[in-house]
Amino acid sequence: MIILIAATSENKALGKNNELAWHLPDDFKRFKELTSGHHIIMGRKTFESFPKPLPNRTHVVISRQKNFNPEGCIVVNSIEDAIAICPKNEAVFIIGGGEIYSLGIEFADKIELTLVHDTFEADAFFPEINPAEWNLVATEFHPKDEKHLFDFSYQTYLRN
After folding, report:
1. Peptide bond before residue 97 is cis, with ω within 30 degrees of 0
2. Residues 89-105 as b or e (16 or more Cβ within 10 Å = b)
3. Most buried of 96, 97, 114, 118 (most Cβ within 10 A)?
4. What whole-number distance in Å separates Cα of residue 31 and Cα of residue 95?
5. What DSSP designation does 127 have?
6. Cα–Cα distance between 130 and 143 in angstroms, integer?
7. Are strands 92-96 and 2-9 parallel, antiparallel or unpaired?
8. In what order do the strands lie in the sheet with 110-116?
9. What's the CA angle centered on 113, arms 35 and 85, to 5 degrees?
10. For residue range 79-90, what is the model confidence (pLDDT) as tens digits?
11. Contact call for residues 45 and 97 (beta carbons, < 8 A)
């Protein structure tokens, strides 16, 4: 199963200058719980936004740079190659950024979305979720609190 996992805002913003526009500790915890032990597919810029590779995950990085070869990662040139290198009977997570989500959505079976209930200025955006192709099967609202500056909802979509 190929799963897009993302946090986006009401205006589909993902982030700006390779950084998230918000800090939601519970969302980071959920991301870790869902993706640990699995292959994660990402673009080079997303990989470079991490201080170090994420533990207990196999990193598959899509890059057009010929000499890009970070230690402990599988580097490929396309979303198709990234998917092909991953196990067929396991959950595989596409974790961003915007261009990789746009390429990966056509291959995805499921979307795990954290919707931040605000709008942000951004230079990377999540693709439109076409209601003719996707069915919202679960939603869980979380009000803002002392650790979370914004209301947010976890949403799960399955392909029709």
Report:
1. yes
2. eebbbbbbbbbbbebbb
3. 96
4. 9
5. P
6. 26
7. parallel
8. 73-76, 58-62, 39-43, 92-96, 2-9, 110-116, 152-159, 134-142
9. 40
10. 999 999 999 999
11. yes
Helix, strand, coil share (%) of the chain residues, nearest 5: 20, 35, 45
Residue 122 has pLDDT above 90, yes or no: yes
Residue 68: count of CB within 10 angstroms of its CB: 14
| Res 107: pLDDT | 97
Half-sphere exposure of 61 (CA within 13 A, CB side): 23
CA of 62: how far to CAs of 47, 87, 100, 153, in Å? 9, 17, 8, 29
Give residue 129's pLDDT band: very low, low, confident or very high (50, 70, 90). Answer: very high
Contacts of 21 (CB under 8 A, 6+ apart): 9, 13, 15, 120, 121, 122
Q: Distance (Å, rounded) from C-alpha 20 to C-alpha 16?
A: 7
- Per-residue CA distances from 26 to 48, 51, 58, 87, 137 (Å): 23, 19, 22, 28, 21
93 to each of 8, 65, 68, 100, 104, how far by Cα in Å? 16, 22, 21, 11, 10
Q: Hey, is 105 helix, strand or coil?
A: coil
Contact between 59 and 74 (Cβ < 8 Å): yes
